[in-house]
What does this fold into?
Amino acid sequence: MPGTVVLGTQWGDEGKGKIIDFCAEKADVVVRFNGGSNAGHTVKVGDEVFRFHLIPSGTIRPEKLNIVGNGVVVDPEVLVKEIDELKGRGYKVDNLKVSERAHLVMPYHKLIDGLEEGLKGSLKAGTTMRGIGPCYEDKAARIGVRFGDLVDRDLLEARLSTLVPLKQRLISAYGGDDVLSREALLRDYVGYGKVLGKYSADTSLILHEALSEGRQVLFEGAQGTHLDIDHGIYPYGTSSNCVTGSASVGSGVGIRHIQEVIGVVKAFTSRVGTGPFPTELPEEEGAYLRDRSLGEYGTTTGRPRRIGWLDTVMVRFSARVNSPDHLAVMKLDVLAGLDPAKVCVAYESDGEELRHFPASMNVLSKCKPVYEELAGWEDISEDTWREVVKAGYDESPPNLREYLAFLTKQTGVPVGIVSVGPGRAETMDIRK
Ligand code: GDP
Ligand code: IMO
Ligand code: MG
It folds into this structure.
């Protein structure tokens, strides 16, 4: 801190929500900087579980300011629902601000997402159908509608007068039979403006002032490096940037304010959606880890995640493009009891050994993992893991520490946070 970025180093769902909540204790402000309601970030506090899609994972700490940055695409329907849910659980949610520059997901984005997926054949990414791609497309094409526009009825009306016929032509051309109504859209979005207008703000300015006063800001990444639009597995990723650089762009804060980067790594690999996955396990073996790890179903879509061994070729690539100071390694409790624990250190492709992640999807789909086998550690109960945390890292199972040292050797990044369960009390902070 003052500026700490938390991001995913794999294909999303690494456990970012837990680490954000953990680090938020020392932060003053939490800001989400990319993605939209395709994200699902889980925070477990005692027996309570929160699943955030848009709202930053710091919102349940009432004393923190939470910001949805300009880089996020905001579905107002989801935002209203999340705010209402939190209010229903006794949270006031008056510690939230949304960038007036953030783009709005419109109902036609969701329709087009579904229609395009149906037509894309082998290019189908298995999207979350939340309208993310079409919304970012409109942002880049300069035909988007922004959060600040919600409170300007005339502007909304003018935009929709142009956009509704345009989108209707696209939907019909794609073979869709939905009929868009400019009036219904205007009514709904003016309605969202009435409820959400009070959250709209120049969040870059708020962040600038907070940082100038020496306050601590935590930047919450969504998705993961290998879903990034530039650095991920194209075309099977998402439509936003998910890497360190996007924390600056997606929140309107200069890069000099970012002083720490934490790359979150799950001790195995998971994937929702389509595309090559070199360490993917056959269904029966993957199901074992998925079932031990109750969270391995898409937080947003409920789809079972594809599961594989830890792939350090992927994480090494993430280390290169994100420059993390530390890794936060998650789900070491889930891996417990597997002996040996396999770690992929390179790929074999057409008789050659690759240590660097390839850009080409065709090369990747031919890659076979080269594994090293490490001695596993004992499977112990949740309570015993909490005892281990209390006793301190040096008292944790020696083979677990060996495994983490191996991960550092493969990626060049020290391990800073060790997670052995979903809750706050199952976390060891060993950052120097
Ligand atoms: P995110 O998208 O990166 O925030 O991750 P998700 O919330 O989609 O998925 C992570 C899942 O793993 C959630 O259900 C978390 O509660 C859970 N989780 C996080 N860390 C640990 C851990 O160390 N051990 C176990 N058993 N579960 C964890
Ligand atoms: P969090 O923040 C895992 C995947 C989808 C699909 C691809 C494109 O919880 O880690 P999209 O709807 O973004 O156009 O889908 O990206 N995907 C995620 N996978 N975790 C996520 O978010 C994801 N967000 C998108 O499954 O393959
Ligand atoms: Mg998730």
Observations:
- Residues 8, 12-18, 40-42, 44, 293, 295, 299, 330-331, 333-334, 419-422 surround guanosine-5'-diphosphate (ligand 1) (CB under 6 Å).
- The chain has a mean pLDDT of 96.
- The chain is about 35% helix and 20% strand.
